[in-house]
Amino acid sequence: MAISGKKDKTQKKSFWKGVKAEFARITWPDRETIGKQTVTVVCASLILGAIIALLDFLFQMGIDFIVTL
Question: Taking the model in full, what pTM does it have?
Answer without folding.
Answer: 0.61
